[in-house]
Amino acid sequence: MANLILAPIVGWFAKVGRAYRLTVEHAGALGILVWESIVAVVTLKVSFRDVLRQMHIMGVQSLPIVFVTASLAGIVTSQQGGYQLISSSPRYVLGTLVVQSVVLELGPLLTAIVLVGRIGARITAELGTMVVSEQIDAFKSLGRDPVAILAAPRIIAGIITMPLLVGFADVIGIYAGMLMADLDGGLGKETFFYGARLFWHSWDLFYGFSKSLVFGFVIPVISVHMGLRTRGGAEGVGLQTTQAVMFMILTILIIDALFPPLLLQ
Amino acid sequence: MISYQNIFKAFDIPVLTGVDLTVETGEMFALFGPSGTGKSVLLKTTLSLIVPDQGDVEVDGLSVYRGPASNLDTIRRKIGYVFQHAALFDSLNVYENVSMGLPEEELAVLRTAELSRRVWDALEIVNLEPREILSKLPSELSGGMKKRVGIARAIVGRPEILLWDEPTTGLDPINTAAVERLIQRLSKDLEVTSLLVTHDVEGGLHICDRVAMLHSGTLRFCGTPQEFKDSPDPVVQAFVHRDAAIAALDMAVV
After folding, report:
1. What digits encode the pLDDT tens for the residues A220-259?
2. Residue B151 domain flag
3. Which of A158, B5, B92, B159 sits 20 to 30 Å CA-CA off A244?
4. Can you list the alpha helix ranges (DSSP code H) found in chain A?
């Protein structure tokens, strides 16, 4: 009888203990990865060519999908904003709404989500495959540092590329919103930008780029960390990639929620 | 000389439970054992690719786990490691893969012509035609060719010790025999110490000076090939005869 009561309680504590241990393990491993990457950069072990290559993959190759995502975000914001504001506010407020939404939230967040799918998943799968096919062990056996060769270039490229992509997404999103405001509600370019300038704070741009910088750091760090922890064969790579995508999206949403109280007060 | 001292390693279950083994300089040594007995794990502890829970490995008197960190760099320069499935770098061509086998500091000072010659020589030693494959990616090579490129990468740095992790796994009998002959020739020509982990008892007994057998995480046998064949230990006998039966079956299929 006592066992029947105690067993679920013990089981619950065991689950909490395992979750705690796993969290500490991840936090420790992430900290070590970041530290080792910094050491690799400071000791000039990171190849400039590798960084450029990763910037090309993350940046140039992501431009089409970022263009589509940002355009649609601008269009939808403009249409929905126009619908909500039609009878309650002056029409130029739509310019404020689109620009503020894109710069503060949609530009950085949607670009980050796109990069999680396009780059984060790719990095985890690529490094996971390298782990299970012993290529990471091969690097170590040859006296090479996998962090300097594989992790650091991706992290540096992420930090540099993400703000550039967000800048691109902001411009595209705002112009798409402006075009839709003109097509949908006949709001001219001058009126749209009058509204945008009326409530504009330069701080907002800094806020959006700060977010993008953090996202650009978080995506490669988590994806590399998860990739290097892969175990098992093809199934392990698939499982780890799925978990990495969940981990990255959740982290990005949490960081996104922490930004307003920290920087918009 | 490689000396494994009281090696313990557990993952979810214990894999190695106190293994002591010494491979002498210049010796060709084979390590047998059924799957899952920790042969590859033991081999990987030599280069700290897997860190044992307890115990130490010494290579030519240098401790891997109890000495300064620089020991590991020195040891890695002494050793060439041939991986089970070659472990070639997917994004690099054959030339780049093989040149990665040279230490970084050597690679930095070598002129292009000298580097090319070293890579070329290594590929010729493993009976590959460099002109035909230098620019190929690993995905364009057959299984046997990948193994040979992996061996070329391991020997290009002129190591004193070669570690072979099941080099014939996944190869057909003809390629298996060819790789075995290659292992034997390389060990003699390059005058290296060789530690070979393999399932292939027949091949191992044929080419090695001494052999050992791991069973249930411990060293069950260590001695000459003849002593292994004559061992009264029923576990050793079962392993020898099972292998002979499989070899006979292979021949029948061929």
Report:
1. 999 999 999 999 889 999 999 999 999 999 999 999 999 9
2. no
3. B92
4. 2-42, 48-58, 63-85, 93-101, 107-115, 121-132, 135-141, 146, 152-185, 189-198, 202-228, 234-263
Secondary structure class of A86 (helix, strand, coil):
coil
- Residue B140 belongs to some domain of the structure: no
Distance of alpha carbon A212 from alpha carbon A62, whole angstroms: 15
> Scanning the structure block, which residue is given the tokens 């393990």?
A25
Mark yes or no for CB contact A135/B85 under 8 Å: no
Residue A220's SS3 state is helix
CB contact at 8 A, A122 and A97: no
End-to-end CA distance of chain A: 56
User: Which residues of chain B lie closer than 8 angstroms to A137, CB-CB?
Assistant: 44, 49, 83, 87
Instruction: Kindly list the residues from chain B whose CB atom is less than 8 angstroms away from the CB atom of residue A122.
Output: none
The 3-state DSSP class for residue A106 equals helix
Which of B44, B48, B87 is the closest to A135 by Cβ?
B87
Q: What is the CATH number of the domain that holds B43?
A: 3.40.50.300
pLDDT at B143: 86
Q: What is the residue whose two structure tokens read 């310019």?
A: A95
Closest CA to B75 of B184, B190, B163: B163
Complex-level ipTM: 0.89
Percentage of residues in chain B having pLDDT higher than 70: 95
* Residue among B139, B194, B128 nearest B167 (CA): B194
Q: Answer whether residue B250 shows pLDDT above 70.
A: no
Condensed to tens digits (0 to 9), the pLDDT of residues B24-44 reads: 999 999 999 888 889 999 999
Number of domains composing chain B: 1
Domain hosting residue B76, numbered range: 2-87+159-253
Chain A, window 132-151: residues with a beta carbon less than 8 angstroms from a chain B beta carbon: 133-135, 137-138, 140-144
| A134/B85 CB distance under 8 A | yes
**For residue B247, pLDDT beyond 80:** no
The verdict on pTM exceeding 0.90 is: no
What are the tens digits of pLDDT across the range A133-155?
Answer: 999 999 999 999 999 999 999 99
Asked if residue B144 is part of any domain, the answer here is: no
